[in-house]
Amino acid sequence: MFRYTLIIFILNLYTPSFSSTKENIISQMKHINILGFDFIQIIDEKKENGSCIIKYPKKIFCKYDGYNKKIIVSNGKSLVIKNKNNGSFFIYPLKKTPLEFLLDKNYLVSKIKNLQPKIIDNKFITFKIIGNKNEINIFFDKDTFILKGWQTEDIYQNLSITFISSIKINEKIDDKIFILPRNN
Q1: Is residue 72 part of a domain?
Q2: What would the pLDDT profile of 155-177 be if each residue is shown by its tens digit?
Q3: Which secondary-structure segment (H or E) carries 112?
Q4: Which CATH number is 81's domain given?
């Protein structure tokens, strides 16, 4: 019996617990106020890339690199999607999109505290968050505990997977980027 207890104790020393994993993720999230990153987004097998800046709570500015030169901006209340090439312009209440939750780190932290993480491909820690008819799978790097992406349904009910890289934390930005663009 003593050997069995000793083996379990030694294994626990070398195996990170899900509790400490969640604590590390929450700690990382709490100190991030501004998150800059490059992204690859896959929607219905169509791949796009670009860069974004998130300022918590609920602000985002993204520039897409593709043909349409799309930009997405949220001022915390509304979300604008603008195609710079043809001038098309769409505005949505932020609360009608999954970004309402993804851009609210306090909401994410409160949910993560009560969820069980899953390890994917020994690379990612993932949490499934369900709220207001939205299902969000959010994933973090297993070693650094930093956000690496998410999976949602977009506003047209298409599966949308976003992977982020080249992450910059709490860099100084100009808040003017979160002013909603006008339809010209």
Answers
A1: yes
A2: 678 899 999 999 999 999 999 99
A3: helix 105-113
A4: 2.50.20.10
- Enter the DSSP assignment of 68: T
Position 52 in a domain: yes
Q: Please state whether beta strands 46-55 and 59-64 pair in parallel, antiparallel, or not at all (unpaired).
A: antiparallel
Rounded to 5°, angle at Cα 56 from 26 and 65: 110
CA 117, chain centre distance (Å): 15
Strand ranges inside 44-94, DSSP E:
46-55, 59-64, 71-75, 78-82, 89-93
Count of structural domains within the chain: 1
Q: Is residue 6 part of a domain?
A: no
Six token digits for residue 183: 């339809």
Tens of pLDDT along 2-57?
A: 443 333 333 343 444 556 889 999 999 999 999 999 999 999 889 999 999 999 99
Type and span of the H or E element at 125: strand 124-131
Q: Residue 132: left if φ>0, alpha if ψ -120 to 50, beta else—which one?
A: left
62: in domain: yes
| Longest alpha-carbon distance in the chain | 76
CA 62/CA 140 separation, integer angstroms:
20
Residues spanned by the domain of 65? 18-178
Which amino acid, one-letter code, is at 37? F
Residue 180, SS3? Answer: coil
CA distance 60 to 52: 7
